[in-house]
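During the first year of the project, the team set up a workflow for recording each protein of interest as an amino acid sequence followed immediately by a discrete structure-token representation. This format lets reviewers and collaborators read both layers of information side by side without switching files. As required by the reporting guidelines, we include two representative entries from the current panel. The first entry is reproduced here exactly as it appears in our internal archive.
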Amino acid sequence: MAVSYTAVVDVNGEGRNGGRVHSSDGLLQTDLAFPKELGGAGTATNPEQLFAAGWAACFLGALRRAAAIRKIKITSTTITAEITLTHADDDEFSLSAVLNPTIGGVDQRTAEELAHAAHQICPYSKATRGNIGVTINASAA
């Protein structure tokens, strides 16, 4: 398989609490901080938000591809991604995800079909399959 693209990002400082993110092309530069819900200041983004943004963007592309393959015209579509960080009693952390695509121009059954197809196409979905819990709640707009 040929490489299409490799993202290169450095994180320094204190990582998720006080770190700084820099992409090799300079387009992504942001600070990291614990969210208020974890006792932090909540003054910067966090890894869960960045993961949610990447997955939602990728999933939207996969959804558009699934629709194009099926020759289904979709209109305004939004993906809301929820990434949850869970802390277990054994002091281990894990992630779970809920993807909420709202698909315009289709009925509920088609929205569910397209979301399922997108989940098979999306590289983020493939990478997490079997590793974290994922719920997909598709709705027609």
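The second entry, processed by the same pipeline in the following quarter, appears below.
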Amino acid sequence: MDLQSAITCPECGHERIETMPTDACQFFYDCAGCGTLMRPRPGDCCVYCSYGSIPCPPIQGAREAGRTGDCCGNS
């Protein structure tokens, strides 16, 4: 499982590598470039699934197990 994700701001394009939490979804993220408070897009429950280079750890785990579902373990 990869815990590093490049999160990209939809407003200014600033990109930053972050370590994703494994025990909770991250609902908000402050862009270091422009200060935009990022929130998940409709249908996603975390900013990494919406704006990250790879999805959050629960989605990665579900894919590895051959399951589908939405963010953070909800099916």
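For the second entry, the following points were noted during internal review. The first strand starts at residue 4 and ends at 8. DSSP finds two helices and four strands in the chain. Both points are flagged for discussion at the upcoming steering committee meeting.
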